[in-house]
Amino acid sequence: MTSDHSEQIRAVEMALEFPHIEVIGIDLTESNPKIVPGNCRFIKADVIAFLEEYAGVFDLIQCRSVAKHVPDATALTCLIGRSLRPGGVLLFADAITDIYNVDKQPYPLALVNDSASNDKIRSWFARWLFEATARWTTKAQQNTEGDKLHILMREDSQFEYLGQKTYYSPINWDGGDQEGILNGAEIGKLMLLNVLDFLQASRPSLLSEGLTEATLQVWDKNVRDEVTAPTKRMFLKWVVAWAVKV
Ligand SMILES: C[S@@+](CC[C@H](N)C(=O)[O-])C[C@H]1O[C@@H](n2cnc3c(N)ncnc32)[C@H](O)[C@@H]1O
């Protein structure tokens, strides 16, 4: 399992709910949740190097929003398969790099030469997300978008692919009466914090990859205007896909 932030909470909750299991969270960064039960530990490591040490031992591996970041997602999938016991389960999850409207259609990207922030048709956050993820060095890696993760599982003969589910997280609203949205208002608030954090965290990579400070100032303001006082309803789309080790 790879882990960080909300994934840490999930790991701790899982360990508390099932005291007879051992839960391990892996991330390149330090994980220090306030409460860590005895049957749970967090390891700061490269998931590839970590998994290379294990074969046929894990019952469940959850890998959320990480396949996109490793240099070779196919190799990661293969290693996960090797480290699971037969019958063990892989849960892959990731978002899709688009921002969706209430009809579950992607907003077109805001136009870079049009600095107006109140365009109701196009989205500045969609533009920022696109520009940031397009610059990730591993972005050339295929099949790591949420709706493509199933291909990684289907192409690896160690797995029987079983299915996938889609979720839409509202950004700074409650998601309305859309089917399948639980705790929409809370998710909406958390997603706003996520977006603002993401703006901050992705800024250095945008600067180092050719965008100017002046451009980013305008875009940053436009995204903040868009998400903090929304004139349009926005969702981020997630997909969870699962497979069993044969
Ligand atoms: C978008 S965050 C997702 C965090 C967490 N898994 C979640 O779902 O909330 C991507 C995470 O991948 C981690 N990461 C990237 N490459 C990694 C690697 N080779 N091994 C372990 N973790 C890695 C980063 O440190 C970062 O925390």
From TrEMBL:
Pfam families documented for this protein: Methyltransf_23
SUPFAM superfamilies, sorted: S-adenosyl-L-methionine-dependent methyltransferases
Protein name: Methyltransferase type 11 domain-containing protein
Organism the protein comes from: Phellinidium pouzarii
